[in-house]
Design a protein that fits this description.
By secondary structure, the chain is α+β, with helices and mostly antiparallel strands. Helix content is about 35%, strand content about 25%. The longest helix is centred in the first third of the chain and has 22 residues.
């Protein structure tokens, strides 16, 4: 097996290099096109960032498979698969909102063993190896210890097809509004998960994400003492994250809304 400390150092270095480019180009007018819907954006910076990361992985680890947001699966089948979101939060980035990340994860035999999430504008490096304490800029992090929704700050988001699909998270969001101290919509799922791991957010849920959105963040949360519940009956990658108690509260709320819909 690879020396994961060395691999982690590589991933952190690549994330910082890409982050520097993204920061330099932040606020410029970007070339934009759409993917699955009119609000699912891709910029030239997404593509530049992904090509940079692919070239670095292929150069250092030429036998590895890569699963990336813009180019899909590349490379031959391998025990090692890199799962990459080169710019999570593209809508924020294009809008001039400084909340976006680079997310890099590594799977070994279908198990995530390493994760990096970098927020360039704040120079925040979240890094983790499976079985070890996750760190933010070198300091250990841990999930929140809160147990009551009324004391909690939660985060969520909405799928790109929310205008045309009834399972768009609006009902769940409305349900939690009066029950919590605050609700946040950050616009970058990987950063939401990183903030849960660091105890900044007490809990998080979202529907219909993709693996590259969550791969590194899920490992961060779990190794930070948290729990991740996958909602397998929902579309795409749908999940809840937080400590055990907060996850249970969020799950109960989602089930309550679903029951009301059925009775509806």
């Amino acid at each position: 097996m690879l020396d994961l400390q060395e691999v982690l150092a590589d991933a952190c270095r690549w994330a910082r290099e890409i982050g520097k480019i993204q920061k330099e180009k932040f606020g410029e007018k970007h070339t934009v096109h759409t993917k699955s819907s009119a609000i699912d954006l891709v910029t030239e910076v997404d593509e530049l960032s992904e090509q940079y990361l692919l070239s670095r992985v292929n150069e250092k680890y030429p036998g590895h498979e890569i699963y990336a947001e813009e180019s899909g699966r590349t490379g031959r089948k391998s025990e090692y698969t890199w799962v990459i979101d080169p710019l999570d939060g593209t809508v924020n980035y294009n809008q001039g909102i400084p909340i976006f990340t680079i997310s890099i994860a590594l799977r070994f035999r279908d198990e995530t063993v390493l994760g990096v999430i970098y927020q360039p504008m704040l120079d925040e490096m979240f890094a983790v190896i499976k079985g070890q304490k996750p760190r933010l800029n070198g300091s250990e992090i841990h999930v929140s210890s809160k147990t009551r929704l009324q004391d909690s700050i939660l985060a969520s988001g909405f799928p790109y097809d929310r205008a045309v699909h009834k399972d768009n998270n609006a009902d769940y969001f409305s349900y939690f509004v009066p029950l919590v101290r605050g609700l946040r919509r950050m616009g970058a799922a990987s950063y939401d998960l990183a903030c849960v791991a660091a105890g900044r957010l007490d809990g998080y849920w979202e529907l219909n994400l993709s693996p590259w959105d969550v791969e590194a963040g899920v490992l961060l949360v779990r190794e930070a003492g948290g729990e991740v519940i996958f909602l397998t009956e929902k579309r795409g990658v749908s999940l809840i994250a937080g400590n055990r108690e907060i996850c249970r509260h969020i799950l109960a709320g989602i089930k309550s809304v679903d029951e009301k819909k059925k009775d509806g």
